[in-house]
């Protein structure tokens, strides 16, 4: 319930009150989970309401309106001098169209961009769909920002557009989730997943899902026979991580198929249709660890593959499903709910059913069609294939630590340090790191002495190895050491802001121990006064609990393997160059670093 009213003590103040109540009697043992979902939805609703109010207040301020008379009821016609506001964000696409919603024609010129800020009309129609001038400008600006700041694989316009649509073309929000997704893809090498991931035989035999032709709109069609799937058996035999990787490979294949279908049908196709058959669904599918794994998979997919689900067809829903749907649907985003079509029993065979969305020739045989479907029929996974918790944990670690990148936390007063021992002078130390949270200062030191053994898990590598996957925060420089005596600085300090990517290299002059250090960045105070500046205080508040996070990779390359000048970090033996192709440096310097924002 939301109420807006004048403040009882001051008529110039407007109060907004919001309240909600929820009484959960029974939800099949998942009462606490539903309660958490409700709290999350309620908090999101409050946040959205605040954003809407602030949005229109900012619009009034931009138009020079500092006062709006209090509304009073009147029997006369509305005054023609009433205040109007201009919408600056586009609405997202609906379930049946990739075209963005139309916008009012009274956009201001500075919102639609300059004349040079345009895409080719044929290109838009062929690959992106109809875009308003504002939406086109948002896409161009976000793409330009990525080209200037992101030193990695730049997503295609179609994929950037998905993130913009997922945030109603709000540039800041879209950029935030897109950067997080790109960092995630880089960390886990998702771009190479289709080439490197091989499904275990258990998945090939018992995972009841697969691609099957396309729907009437040309969207790739994925079929999931969830009612026939032994979710408990798959989790016990494979673990969460293998299932997650398999689902990610399905989404990557979906993106590839969308590109193919765009070329085949000559129109933009950016999402796919999913058909879920629930025949056979029963209480065993509500096994708690299985539900936990499903929720985690959904969370990862929603964060990294937005606006890829065009339509979800749920067939042969059991009798209990309408009750569950009535309880769950309020917690699902309205735009997402529009993509759900639910059929009980054989209703999908009648008017408004499956034939409205899928050609008769490709309806699977198990749904009464004539097309043979290669999706496995599933069945119970033999218990002989079950793995122990220890085996699954070890396999999960090996799956997600195949990435060459490490994660570390940096705290105020507790830097993270990595040591590399150099035996041969003139070796090249390379580094590549992303500042995921907070601001840090990067240092590179040299010492003839071996640093102290870390008190936590051993992280000191051998020659070109830096840390183990479990590394989090390690200090190696002894408190008693004196700079200039026990160790020396060989790189100038480099301040790195949140969201920046840094690539660099250093040609070593002496053997010994080189220490890479990421240190918490403390904002300097004003030189003219001992009091901190307002900007410094506000900046410090943005770093939660004085904690920063970096994701990094280091490698030592022999001078004979370091090709050419300092303008390249390519190496015939280096995996570094696969993820960061663009690196620059000075030809006359012994070291180099490049920051991208």
From TrEMBL:
Domain GOLD: 401-556
Bias (Polar residues): 93-114, 462-471
Domain PRELI/MSF1: 1-65
Pfam families in the record: CRAL_TRIO (PF00650), CRAL_TRIO_N (PF03765), PRELI (PF04707)
One GO CC term on file: cytosol
Gene3D superfamilies xref list: CRAL-TRIO lipid binding domain (3.40.525.10), GOLD domain (2.60.120.680)
Positions of region (Disordered): 71-118, 451-471, 577-597
UniProt cross-references to InterPro entries, sorted A to Z: CRAL-TRIO_dom (IPR001251), CRAL-TRIO_dom_sf (IPR036865), CRAL/TRIO_N_dom (IPR011074), CRAL/TRIO_N_dom_sf (IPR036273), GOLD_dom (IPR009038), GOLD_dom_sf (IPR036598), PRELI/MSF1_dom (IPR006797), SEC14/CRAL-TRIO_domain (IPR051064)
Domain of life: Eukaryota
A single GO molecular function term of this UniProt record: RIG-I binding
BP terms from Gene Ontology: negative regulation of RIG-I signaling pathway
SMART domains from the UniProt entry: CRAL_TRIO_N (SM01100), SEC14 (SM00516)
Stretches assigned to the CRAL-TRIO domain: 199-375
PROSITE patterns, per the entry: CRAL_TRIO, GOLD, PRELI_MSF1
Record protein name field: SEC14-like protein 1
Species lineage: Eukaryota, Metazoa, Chordata, Craniata, Vertebrata
